[in-house]
Amino acid sequence: MAPTRTRIQTRNRETILAAGLTVFSGQGFRGATLDEIARQAGLSKPNLLYYFPSKEAIYTELLEGLLDTWLDPLRALDPSGPALEELLAYVERKLSLSRDFPLESRLFANEILQGAPQIGKILSSDLKALVDEKAAVIKIWADDGQIAPVDPHHLIFSIWSLTQHYADFDVQVRAVLGKADPFPGAEAHLEQVFRRILTP
Predict the structure, then answer these.
(1) What number of CA atoms fall less than 13 Å from residue 26's CA on the CB side?
(2) How many helices, marked H, and strands, marked E, lie in the chain?
(3) pTM for the complete prediction?
(4) For residue 79, which of 91, 69, 71, 87 has the smallest C-alpha distance?
(5) Keyword annotations for this protein (predicted)?
(6) pLDDT tens digits along 29-70
(7) What CATH fold (topology level) applies to the domain 62-198?
(8) Was domain 1-53 assigned CATH 3.10.450.50?
(9) Measured distance CA(36)–CA(46) in Å, rounded
(10) Residue 130 in contact with residue 73, Cβ under 8 Å?
């Protein structure tokens, strides 16, 4: 049984994780240092090491929490729902993650670009199993004529790439659009794109 943490301990752990997210999402795992994370957290390095023994421990805890958040939108795809609306709702949920959790998206992207050294086993087990399960549902919908014929796995990849772009390439998007919030336009555009692709 894990020991009960005080409010100060809980707050300090959350502060360290938030600082780690900022540093890792900007510099990647290799570029990040405990000194920089401690500085971002407003704590001394020895104080940080009281809560986490290494930068690997901070990084691993962030990724493990992130994976659940990242997979929840796909888990929510309901096989008994109307096919087209279920898929459009999935697109909307994924875009919302990019809007609400941009640093988390960049952290995940950095991990993947490095060859997924920390979460490779999870990607080939938990993630693969979930994607295969939902791809089978999409294939049934397509075979039944509820949506247009489509490769289920590549449809999921397309949804990932088109929604996560707005977090991972935020600087580029905002450089082109100026100060405008890109997400209302992105939501309308992606709804139109996927509706056209998927309507029988």
Answers:
(1) 12
(2) 11, 0
(3) 0.86
(4) 87
(5) DNA-binding
(6) 889 999 999 999 999 999 999 999 999 999 989 988 888 888
(7) Tetracycline Repressor; domain 2 (1.10.357)
(8) no
(9) 13
(10) no
